C-alpha cells in the first residue's frame, strides 16, 4: 500500500511541475513577442540573422566532422587494444598448456623416482593451472554460449586430468608405486592430455583468426582516419575564408542591430532552456514512476513464489520424514514375513497365502512411501543418458492404446535436442501420469499434444532447478476442462485432489514435481477453465562427468554365506536391527550388531575378524558414512554396505564418502542376500588385488 501511495505522489508531482513550467513559458513568450514588435521596422535584421544562422550551421557541420574524426581515432585505439587482448589470449592459452604439461612432467617424475623434489613444481603447476584457465575464459569465453559450453567441457577434462595425476601421486606417497605406475601406463592420462591439447589448439587457431581480423581492422581505421583528417583540413580552410568574408560584410549591420539581437537571442535561449528542463524533468519523473510500479509488481510476484516454495518445502520435509519412518516399519514387516515364510511348512497353503497377502499389502505400502519420497526429492533414482525423442516415441505408443478412441494423441518432436541425464523409467511414469490426468479432464474426448524441443534461457536462468545453458523441454497439453487459479496453485501439493473419494490419491502430480526437481529440472503449469492445461518440464542437458548407474541385475538363486564370514549390523531401530540379524543368520552368516556408531567401533576393536560393515545412513550421533570412514581408517580391508529409507546419497544430499552399494528400505530377503554377497565378494577382490602390491 505504501508503494502504491508513492507512485500516486510521483504522478501528481509530474502534473504540478508541468503546470508551473507552462505558466513560466507563457510569460517568456509574451516578453519575446513585445521585443519583436519593437524591432519590426528593421527588416534588414532578418537578413543578418539568416546569414548568422548559416555560419552557425557551417560551424556545426565542422564540429560534426571533427567529432567524426575523433570517433574514428577512438575506434582505432579500441581496435589496437582488442589486438593486444588477442595477443594476451594466445599467451594465456599457452600458459594453460604449459601449466598442465609441467604438472604432468613433475607427476611422472615423482611416480618414477619417488623423489619429493618433484612435488613442489607439481603443486605449483596445479595451483597455476586454475588461475590461468580462469584468465583465458575471462578473455575469450564471457558472453559467448558456444565458448561457455566449450570451457565447461575443457574444465571437466582438466579436472579429470588433475584427478588422475593426484591419484597416482597419492598412491606413490602411500608406497603403492606399482599401482601408480600401472595407472600412469594405462594411457588414460595421456588420452585426457591429448583431448585437452586438441581443444586448446582449436582455441588458439580461433584466437589467431580473430587477431588477424583485428589487425586488418586497425589498418582500415588508419586509412579512414587519414581521409577524415584531410577532409577536415579542407573544410576548415573553406570555413575560415567564408568567415572572413562574412564578418567584413556584416560588421556594420551587426553593430547597428546588436542590442536588438542580444535581447531576442536571450529570450530564445531562455525558452529553449526552460523547454529542455521541462522535458528532462518530465521524462525523469515518468521513468521513476514506471520503475516504481514495475518494482512493486516484481516484489509481489517474488513474495508469492517464495511463499509457495516455503509451503512446498515444509510439506516435503514432513512427508519425507514420515516416509522414512514408515519405511523402517515396513522393513521390519517384510523381513519378518520373509523369515516366517521360509520357516513354515510349504504344505500349509492357507498360511502361505496369508503371508503372501500380507507381503503384497506391505509392498503396496512401500510404493506409497516411494511416492512420498518422490515428492520430497528423496527417492532412489537410476539416472542414465536418455534421448528424449526416442523415449517419448515409446511412451506415445503406450498411452495411445490406453486413452481410448475419443482422445487423439498428437506429437511435435523437435530436432537437435541434446540428451538428458534422468531415470528413464521414472520419466516414462511422469508422462503416463500427466496423460492420465489429461484423460480425466476430457470425459467427452479431446486432443492430447506431446511436444519436445530444445530450450535456451533468454536472459535470467530458470527460477528453480539446476542452472544449465540449455534444456530439453517436454510439453504435455490437453483441451480439457482446465482449472481455476486457486486449484492450479495447489496441484503439486501431496494429497490434494479434486477427484471424488476413491478415484485419486493426490500423489500423482506431487510425485511428478519431486522427480523433476530431484533430476535438476523445473516444472511449470498453465491452465485456463474451459480451454485446457499445459505442463512444461525443463530437464538440463547431459553434463560431462556424470556417472551412469549400472542396470539392475537379474534375479537368481538366493545367495548364501558361511559361518566364517562375520557381518556387523548397525541400525538404531531395534526391531529392524533384530529382524535383519535373523535374516543374515538364516543365510548362514555369523552376525554381530550395534545400535550406534560408537558401539560399532567398540565391537570392531574386540572382533577383528569382521568382514562386512552393514550400516544405516541416518543415525543419531554418528551418520553411517562417518562410521564407514572411521572404520576404514583402522581396518582398510573391511567391506562396506549402506542401507537407507532415503535416496542413495548422504544426509545433506552429497555423494556418500566412502562410496559403496546401498540397500533401499524396505528390502526383501532376496535383495539383502544379493547385496551382502556382492559386497563381500568385492571386498575379497580388493584385498586380493592389494596383497601383491603390499608384499612388494
List its salient traits.
single chain; 696 residues; alpha/beta; 5-stranded mixed beta sheet; 5-stranded parallel beta sheet; 16 helices; 12 strands; extended; transmembrane; histidine kinase; membrane
Rounded mean pLDDT score: 75
- Major sheet attributes: 5 strands, mixed
Distance between the termini: 79 Å
Poorly predicted residue ranges: 374-378, 500-506, 544-555, 647-653
Indicate the structural class.
Answer: alpha/beta
Structure write-up:
- The chain is an alpha/beta fold.
- The protein contains 16 helices and 12 strands.
- The chain has helices at residues 2-38, 44-113, 119-140, 145-173, 177-185, 188-256, 258-343, 349-375, 388-402, 424-440, 485-488, 508-518, 574-586, 597-606, 624-634, 669-695, and strands spanning 384-386, 407-413, 420-422, 446-455, 471-478, 522-528, 532-540, 566-570, 590-594, 610-616, 639-644, 662-664.
- The strands form 3 sheets. Strands 2-4-5-7-6 form a 5-stranded mixed beta sheet, covered by helices on one side. Strands 9-8-10-11-12 form a 5-stranded parallel beta sheet, with helices on both faces.
- A hairpin with a 3-residue loop joins strand 6 (522-528) and strand 7.
- The relative contact order is 0.07.
- This is histidine kinase.
- Residues 321-543 form the Histidine kinase domain.
Amino acid at each position: 500500500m505504501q508503494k502504491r501511495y508513492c507512485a500516486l505522489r510521483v504522478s501528481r508531482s509530474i502534473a504540478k511541475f508541468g503546470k508551473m513550467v507552462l505558466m513560466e513559458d507563457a510569460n517568456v513568450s509574451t516578453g519575446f513577442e513585445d521585443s519583436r514588435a519593437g524591432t519590426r521596422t528593421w527588416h534588414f535584421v532578418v537578413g543578418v540573422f539568416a546569414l548568422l544562422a548559416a555560419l552557425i550551421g557551417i560551424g556545426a557541420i565542422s564540429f560534426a566532422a571533427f567529432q567524426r574524426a575523433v570517433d574514428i581515432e577512438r575506434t582505432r585505439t579500441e581496435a589496437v587494444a582488442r589486438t593486444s587482448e588477442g595477443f594476451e589470449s594466445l599467451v594465456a592459452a599457452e600458459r594453460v598448456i604449459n601449466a598442465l604439461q609441467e604438472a604432468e612432467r613433475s607427476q611422472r617424475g615423482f611416480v618414477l623416482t619417488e623423489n619429493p623434489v618433484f612435488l613442489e613444481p607439481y603443486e605449483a603447476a596445479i595451483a597455476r593451472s586454475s588461475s590461468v584457465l580462469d584468465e583465458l575464459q575471462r578473455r575469450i569465453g564471457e558472453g559467448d554460449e558456444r565458448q561457455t559450453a566449450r570451457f565447461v567441457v575443457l574444465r571437466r577434462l582438466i579436472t579429470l586430468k588433475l584427478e588422475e595425476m593426484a591419484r597416482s601421486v597419492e598412491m606413490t606417497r602411500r608406497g603403492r608405486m606399482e599401482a601408480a605406475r600401472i595407472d600412469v601406463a594405462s594411457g588414460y592420462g595421456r588420452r585426457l592430455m591429448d583431448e585437452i591439447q586438441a581443444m586448446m589448439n582449436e582455441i588458439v587457431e580461433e584466437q589467431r583468426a580473430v587477431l588477424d581480423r583485428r589487425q586488418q581492422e586497425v589498418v582500415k581505421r588508419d586509412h579512414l582516419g587519414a581521409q577524415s583528417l584531410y577532409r577536415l583540413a579542407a573544410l576548415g580552410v573553406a570555413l575560415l575564408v567564408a568567415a572572413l568574408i562574412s564578418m567584413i560584410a556584416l560588421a556594420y549591420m551587426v553593430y547597428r542591430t546588436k542590442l536588438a539581437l542580444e535581447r531576442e537571442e536571450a529570450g530564445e535561449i531562455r525558452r529553449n532552456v526552460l523547454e529542455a528542463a521541462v522535458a528532462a524533468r518530465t521524462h525523469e519523473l515518468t521513468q521513476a514512476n514506471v520503475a516504481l510500479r514495475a518494482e512493486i509488481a516484481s516484489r509481489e510476484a517474488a513474495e508469492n513464489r517464495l511463499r509457495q516454495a516455503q509451503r512446498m518445502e515444509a510439506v516435503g520435509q514432513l512427508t519425507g520424514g514420515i516416509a522414512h519412518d514408515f519405511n523402517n516399519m515396513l522393513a521390519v514387516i517384510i523381513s519378518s514375513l520373509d523369515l516366517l515364510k521360509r520357516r513354515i511348512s510349504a504344505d500349509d497353503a492357507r498360511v502361505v497365502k496369508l503371508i503372501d497377502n500380507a507381503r503384497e499389502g506391505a509392498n503396496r505400502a512401500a510404493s506409497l512411501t516411494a511416492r512420498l519420497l518422490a515428492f520430497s526429492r528423496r527417492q532412489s533414482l537410476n539416472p542414465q543418458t536418455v534421448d528424449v525423442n526416442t523415449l517419448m516415441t515409446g511412451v506415445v505408443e503406450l498411452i495411445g492404446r490406453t486413452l481410448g478412441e475419443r482422445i487423439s494423441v498428437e506429437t511435435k518432436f523437435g530436432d537437435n535436442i541434446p540428451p538428458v541425464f534422468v531415470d528413464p523409467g521414472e520419466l516414462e511414469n511422469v508422462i503416463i501420469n500427466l496423460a492420465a490426468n489429461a484423460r480425466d479432464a476430457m470425459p467427452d474426448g479431446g486432443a492430447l499434444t506431446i511436444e519436445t524441443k530444445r530450450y535456451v534461457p533468454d536472459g535470467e536462468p530458470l527460477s528453480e532447478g539446476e542452472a544449465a545453458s540449455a534444456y530439453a523441454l517436454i510439453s504435455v497439453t490437453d483441451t480439457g476442462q482446465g482449472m481455476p487459479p486457486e486449484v492450479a496453485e495447489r496441484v503439486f501439493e501431496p494429497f490434494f485432489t479434486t477427484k471424488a473419494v476413491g478415484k485419486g490419491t493426490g500423489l500423482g502430480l506431487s510425485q511428478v514435481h519431486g522427480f523433476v526437481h530431484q533430476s535438476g529440472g523445473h516444472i511449470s503449469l498453465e491452465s485456463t477453465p474451459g480451454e485446457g492445461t499445459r505442463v512444461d518440464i525443463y530437464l538440463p542437458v547431459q553434463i560431462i562427468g556424470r556417472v551412469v548407474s549400472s542396470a539392475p541385475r537379474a534375479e537368481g538363486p538366493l545367495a548364501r554365506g558361511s559361518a566364517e564370514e562375520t557381518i556387523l549390523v548397525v541400525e538404531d531401530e531395534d526391531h529392524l536391527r533384530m529382524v535383519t540379524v535373523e535374516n543374515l543368520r538364516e543365510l548362514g552368516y555369523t552376525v554381530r550388531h550395534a545400535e550406534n556408531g560408537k558401539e560399532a567401533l567398540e565391537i570392531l576393536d574386540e572382533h577383528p575378524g569382521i568382514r562386512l560393515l552393514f550400516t544405516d545412513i541416518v543415525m543419531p550421533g554418528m551418520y553411517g558414512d562417518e562410521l564407514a570412514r572411521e572404520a576404514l581408517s583402522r581396518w582398510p580391508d573391511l567391506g562396506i554396505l549402506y542401507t537407507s529409507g532415503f535416496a542413495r546419497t548422504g544426509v545433506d544430499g552429497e555423494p556418500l564418502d566412502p562410496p559403496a552399494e546401498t540397500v533401499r528400505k524396505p528390502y526383501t530377503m532376496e535383495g539383502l542376500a544379493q547385496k551382502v554377497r556382492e559386497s563381500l565378494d568385492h571386498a575379497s577382490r580388493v584385498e586380493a588385488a592389494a596383497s601383491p602390491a603390499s608384499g612388494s
